[in-house]
Structures are given as structure tokens and as C-alpha cells.
Structures
1.
Amino acid sequence: MKFAVIVFPGSNCDIDCYKAVEEAIGQEVDYVWHTATDLSAYDAILVPGGFSYGDYLRCGAIARFAPVMAEVVKAAEQGKYVLGICNGFQILTEAGLLPGALLRNSGLKFLCHQAPLEVVNNETAFTNQYAKGEIVNIPIAHGEGNYFCDEETLAKLEANNQIVFRYAQGSNPNGSLSDIAGICNERGNVVGMMPHPERAINQLLGSEGGKRMFTSILNAWREQHGAAVNS
Ligand SMILES: NC(=O)CC[C@H](N)C(=O)O
């Protein structure tokens, strides 16, 4: 299985994502610069965190016009796995691949700490190795992680089981609507989340709560391609 980690000017979690793929699942992974116009070689696309183009406008609002984004949209339409983490989540909402928007944190401060998350949907390609309702610790690091959408969109997200993670145990750090920490598209092959699973793949980093997101993706890909699950 082959992963692409998209790199924008200002990305700062690209190396963490690359290392997480190597360390957690030992699969092939390339950095792909924002000017790239072909992602056909890849099975999964990671859109990492950071401050793309400085985030001088709304976070992700410039990045979504990068040449590579047309390819990310194409990959999503083809059913490939697309995971947007933090700034990556913001970029995917700006690109229209996921509904809603990320607003300034309600406390107006950049927040950087471990966050307990509830796995709400464990049926996605990104969460199949977790139990439903399981609480995992995955760190957050953002200034604009306050998820918002209109009532109709929220009702749709709930009805289609598109809420993947919620901030658990009354811990909502940023004012996010319905405690939402991560969502998927209707088809389930695109996930966006504010917490950083790539920073939680080894106890040495403070938590390995994010590691199974990577094993989940590999597991889903192998099932889709008829390979034995743990081979
Ligand atoms: N770690 C990140 O990706 C940060 C995303 C964005 N720049 C924010 O502060 O919300």
C-alpha cells in the first residue's frame, strides 16, 4: 500500500505523518509537493497539519486552491482514503470534501494538550481497529478547531453516522458543535479531524492512541484488495 503526504509551504506535521506511516504500519510513503498534478500512484492521501501558506486568511482557504487539491478531490471521488489532520481537516472543509467549517477556538487561544476522544463510529476505514465508544488519548494543537455547521448538516451527519470522534467526558476544548472532533464524508472514505493521531503512535510520545488509525487504513485496504488481513 502506498501513501502520499501532501506538503504545502507552512505544513509542519508532514514529517510526523511520514514517520507514523513508516513506524506504525511499515508501508511505502512519499512526500508530495503542493504543485503536484498526479496522485494516481497512491492508495491513501494524508493532508497534514500546520499553517499552510501561513494561514493568513481563514485556515485552509488558500491551500484549497493549490494544484494538488484537484487531485485530492479526484482521489476522494475514486474512493481512495483521504485523511485530513488539523490544518488538513480545515483544508478539506474549504475544498468542499467535508461539510462545515472550523472557527476560532471559543477561548480565542491556541490549545496544545492531550485530548480524550470517544470513538463514535468504528466502521470507517480509519477506525475499524477501535471499539465503538472507546476513549483514546490523542493530542490537539490548534487555534481554529471549533467545528461548526448548520442544523440541517448536523442532523445529516448524525443520521449518516458521519461523526467519527467526539471530545469525551465533557472535555470539549474549543466550543466545537456537538463536541465534534472528527467527521467523515457520506461515503466514509474521507475523514477530517482536529486531533493529531500521527503524534500518538508510541507511548514515548505520551500516547499510542492514534496508532490504530494507521493499522485501520491498512486493514481496510487489504480487505478491499482481498489480501489476508494480518499479512
Ligand atoms: N496544528 C495545526 O494544524 C494548526 C492548524 C491551524 N493553523 C490552527 O491553528 O488551527
2.
Amino acid sequence: MSDIKQFVTDDMVTTGDFELEERHSLRRVAGLSTELTDVTEVEYRQLRLERVVLVGVWTDGTVADADNSMIELAALAETAGSEVLEGLVQRRRAIDPATFIGRGKVDELKDAVVNTGADTVICDGELSPSQLRNLEERLNVKVVDRTALILDIFAQHAKSKEGKAQVELAQLQYLVPRLRGWGMTLSRQAGGSGSGAGGGVGLRGPGETKLEIDRRRINTRIAKLRREIKAMRIIRDTKRASRARNEVPGVAIAGYTNAGKSSLLNRLTGAGVLVENALFATLDPTTRRARAADGREYTLSDTVGFVRHLPHQIVEAFRSTLEEVAGADLVLHVVDGAHPNPAEQVRAVREVLADVDADRVPELLVVNKIDMADPETLLMIKRDWPGVMFVSAHTGEGIEELRAAIEERLPRPAIELRAVVPYDRGDLVDRVHRLGEVLSTEHGEGGTLVHVRVPRGLAAELQPYVQ
Ligand SMILES: Nc1nc2c(ncn2[C@@H]2O[C@H](COP(=O)(O)OP(=O)(O)OP(=O)(O)O)[C@@H](O)[C@H]2O)c(=O)[nH]1
Ligand SMILES: [Mg+2]
């Protein structure tokens, strides 16, 4: 069977550990050269977020919502390898079109930057190129938005060729409209060398020529990445088609980032997938084989985590990965029960699922981390979402029930038949057990008498022996 290749066995346990170790050893490499040689590879990829101040604008919702949003931004910043020094939120009716936070507040923000010695400000939102530029000019440090931060984490975590290409595509798409701002900022940070005095007006002329070149180069690169991703997608579709031909049911694990999807996959299949208390630890989908109590095979796939306002560049670039979920027979939607607002996470996940047409796949909602969840939150969940399952990937509580619930929801093989399989066709009996539902077997004179439900392909092979 050609799809076996993508199932990895026990030695993944060590790979997972190794990956974790490697990732930690890679983080926080300070003081790398900032010599800029290639806009696409260097300028953008190494954001070098080190010591940061976070800033948000609270326009609607409760205080708790505003706090959660900043806590999430801090977690994102830390995942990207930076040290969070301070977080400021401004209550305001709307975002300031020029400076994101109110113009008057920029000075206060600047004080915070100076007092803490921060080198970067991260804004909780997606800023326009001019907002970023205006803030940078007034604060004199690098200003980054939430989208760029998420893109940076993705860039650090992408492992596979496809994942890397997808991230780079997303980054470049984000970069194109901001090219001008970035160029100015970086040249200013590098001491203004090369690009005229103080940026601004001085950048016209030669600056713009370089900009045109950069833009052209980036667009060429974008086109190339699109082609590559398309080609890789064909390979993936072929694999998926072969899985569909073999009629092995597929279960996709989806959910908010850090909900415990990889932990659950490990718990359910004994696979050693990378687990980390970091956001977007998993970018490359992994598929593992599992076996139901009745011996039937199915697959479980781990996928990239979702987040509120997942940047649209990411959704676009990762569309082919996310669409895997749409091709599944069941979506295991994992929710972090220990999060202060699981409902909002569920909403954010369903939004992305709908965006990639995966909302038509039956969903099994699973609340994880019940070992550390607040009992009151759990009660509320039980009331609001009937039929939800409660588990802990850590303690193993509820896992057997979950396994049974998954197996119950697997599509049943299409064809019911009785056949006498000759004893020299042990291979066929074996496949009947793996792919079909065995209702009864009996050893008869001419062979094994089986009463089964099997997928169409297998039914055709059994045809000669049907009674
Ligand atoms: N207390 C507790 N912690 C858990 C449980 N399941 C997972 N975790 C922790 O939650 C963190 C995230 O787990 P992962 O399995 O990496 O989560 P994920 O959903 O795959 O995350 P991403 O791949 O980053 O989207 C890790 O620190 C886990 O140890 C659980 O049942 N209880
Ligand atoms: Mg994961």
C-alpha cells in the first residue's frame, strides 16, 4: 500500500524530543549580523524581536476580553523568542487611523519604551503600512503588528519543504504593500547608511528605484513559490486519493493553537509528535494510523493550530494543508478547557474551518486539559454544548470513551456480504479485518466463512468467493 510511507513508527518518539531540543537551542540567538543582502531572506525573516513592549487598543467587549487578548499577544511574543517587558492597553472607541493608539498616547508609549529599554513595540492588530511607519518615526524603535509576529513564529517553526514555502509566500504577501516602510526603517536602524539623510523626502529618486527592483524581485519569487506549492499539492492530492481508494477512514484533529492536539494524537496512537507549551508548535501535518477495537484501520491527522484573526495570508498560503481537514470523515475539534474563554476559541476555529469548506465534515467537540480546568467553566461548557467529550491527554481521563466515540462515528463500510475465503487467501482475510467490519467468522471446509461489511474495492475482490 503506497500510503504506508507517510505513517511513521516508534522512532518518531526520539525525533519529537530531538525536534524540541533543537527548537529550544535555536531560539534567542542574539546579535546576529544585520547586514542586509537580500530583502526576502534576511531583512524580513529575522525580525530579531528581543525586548518588547506590547500595546493594544480595547474597542469593545469586556475587560477580561481585553486582558485575554493581551495575554495571548504576550504568549505569541514569547513563542517568537522575545522578552515581554510591559503591556499597555488603551480604551478607545476606535483605532486611530494614523497611529493605531491615540496620538496623545504615543508619548506615553514612548516613555515606556525608553524606561524599559525595549527595542521593539508589538501592536495587537494588523496595522496599515502608514500606521507602522508613523509609529516607528515617533517611537524610534521597530514596530511590528500581530500578523508579522505570527508570520515570524510560523517561519521559525516550519520544517517541511512545503511548510517553508507556504510561510515564505505568506510573508512576502504581507511584505509587498509594506516594502517602502520596511526599507526606510531598516536603513534608519542601520544608521541611515546609504539611503539619504533621515529617510522621508530624501528617499525619493534612488530609493524608489531600488524599491521597484525589490518589488519586482519579490513578485517573481511569489510566482515561483505559488508554482512550487501547487506542484507539492498535486503530490499530496495523489496520496490522499490513494488513501480514499483504500477507503481508510480519516479523522482530522483541529483546534486552537496550544489546545493539546498533538498531545491527544500521542495519547490516542502512542506516536511521538512534538508537544510544546508554545503557540504553533505544529505546522506540518502528521498522519498516524490507528486501529479501532474491532480491528478496523483509520488515520488520525494532526494539523496546524488556529488562532483568532489568523492572518489571511496564512490561511491562503496554508489552504492546501487546511483543506486536508475538509477531506476528512470526522473532525476532532480540540478545545483547551483550561483557557479562560473556550467559547471564543471554538468560534475562531469554526470560522477558519468554514473558510476552507471543512464545516460540512461531522465534528466531535473534545474539551481537553480537564485536569487543570476550572470546574465552573466545565459546567458551563456541559450546559452550552451537549454531546461534548471531556478528556485529559495528560492523565488519560476520558480517553477510552473518546476512542469509542471516534470509532462509533467512523463511516461504515458500504457493502455487506458473506463469503467463503479459501485458506490460501489469508491476505484477503487479513485485509477484511483491517478495512472492514467483521460481523462473524467461522472456519468451514473450503475456507473461512466470513460475514462482513467491507468497502467497495474489497467487495469486488471478494466477489469470486461470495456465496
Ligand atoms: N494540564 C494539561 N496540559 C496539557 C494537556 N494536554 C496538553 N497539555 C499541554 O498543553 C501544551 C500544548 O500541547 P500541544 O499538544 O503541543 O498542543 P497543540 O494543540 O498541538 O499546539 P500547537 O501545535 O502549538 O497548535 C503543552 O505544554 C502540553 O503539555 C492536558 O490534558 N492537561
Ligand atoms: Mg501541535
